[in-house]
Amino acid sequence: MPRFLLTRVSSGLMVLLLVCLFTYLVFFALSPDPAVQICGKNCTPELIDQIRGNLGLDQPFWTQFFLFVVGIFAGRTYGDGAGAVECAAPCLGYSFQSSQAVWDMIVQRLPVSATVAIGAAVLWLLAGLVGGLLSAVKEGTFLDRFTTGLTLTSMSIPNYVLALVLQYVLVVQLQWLPFPQAVRFADDPVQWFLNFVMPWMVLAIGYAAAYTRLTRANVLDVLRENYVRTAYAKGLPQSLVWRRHALRPALTPIVTIFGMDFAGLLGGALITETVFGINGVGKMAADSIARNDQPVIMGVTLLAGFLVVVGNMVVDVVYTAIDPRVRVNA
Amino acid sequence: MTTDPMLLEVRDLTVTFPTPRGPLDAVKSLDLDLEPGGALGIVGESGSGKSMTSLAIMGLQPRAARRTGSVRLRGRELVGMSEADLRRVRGDRVAMVFQDPLSSLNPYYTVGLQIEEAYRAHRPGVTRRAARKIAIAALERVHIRDAAVRVNHYPHQFSGGMRQRVMIAMALSTEPELLIADEPTTALDVTVQAQILDLLQEIRRETGTGLVLITHDLAVVSEITDHIVVMKDGVCVERGAVEQIFTDPRHPYTQALLDAVPRIDDEIGELRAVVPDAATTSPATENTATENGGPA
Q1: What is the ipTM of this complex?
Q2: What CATH number is associated with residue A125?
């Protein structure tokens, strides 16, 4: 088990390093000179050079990249002399825009994105599993066909369209939901909760449709397995055959997909957060891309990569618990 | 002859599938008889309807299929029986062993649990601990060593032959009157085949369980069973005692099947196939020299 984890962790780190490198390369090669951007209106060539020096932009590419990676693990110092800025251990640099530490920006916004992701995940898991199971049980009936049609429709509606329609219908027309207001959970839990209802729905609906189809297909596949026939031949009641022999094999692959989807979402739902004005990692990413705020984009990309890698590792570990065939020491 | 009712009495069994080109009979007007403790072989090539017969006896034919006729187990009619009553017969009075033991065992559960649930399904109120003892005993009976340890292992930790032993142990745990084995040795290699056949023989001797053995392999039936039914295209084309069929096959299809068996003392030449038109379906040939040659 430890060896298995060790290989997973080291290969995960390799993936992250590569993500880092490619993101760095892209911005190094493509983006306009950040020093000019930071410098602003009253700018002199000397000032630009000084900013370059402070940010380490005058160094060759590999040195810059190396310093960046070292900064994440050991921290780094920008500039020298009296103007030196100490950036503590998980150092992802400073936003060109707001001069805030990128790490702090992420830490601030991550709980918001997590709230969005968790609520949506609960919704889509419930809807997807229930819908898929019902569809499989009632294979070929009206309910099954209706569900299939519904999933197709909801998968083909873009998030931002759905978001606008929902806002118009639920808030403006029907007034079932109050207008979103910026409140803290502690101040007004009800308003806080209602703020999130629409983002949750918008995010969940596409996933729910995909999970419904996946669940239905898996259950129908497993019901055709020989071991299900064996279970019937043993005289087990139908409910037990389903519960024990069909559901567990059918739902196992969903753990994999869920781990990856959820991990991806934790790193911010770009469109949904932007449309609803939710101040999470996703909106931060969208804003920073618009302003070419390179350190923030780097930070968000790395975060997303990190979450996916960790999500995969969690899935692997969970898998060893639910599927005896992948138990390594067995 | 005993006056006991026959163990298995199948009359006019027909399994029909709806197809776009009209109903298709996978099994047509089949009659089978098996005395208590007897062994019957059903022989035929792929698609002859022999596996469908075994499923239909237990009412496990696919949902789309329609089953008509009569299947009597010790005089009790199984066709038309309620699902709940059928469930009590399945696995308890009649147990099945399938062709591919790996896919027929659930990979997610230990073999112990899968034997226990077969047993407990028919013995309500039996504790897990008691069922565990039964499972270990069942594994010992099929000569699996270290049964007390192996009971906690998963199917993928067994070899092909051992898995089939597990399937047999599972089937026998409830002490059924009738064991239906559907190509039990087909997925196994030759030496293991022989071991499994020996095991089936031994179990018959010791428990007096009736056996219906379904196979395409004439060598297998000749070793174990006393009567044979030869099937082709869902119809019984010939039936009789083993020696009778082997020495004096009446139906050209049976002859073709026998000719297709490669023999070690044969001259080296091409393998003979079962030529379809040499064996066109014709009414069942009664091998009248047997005392148990089909319905009276």
Answers
A1: 0.85
A2: 1.10.3720.10
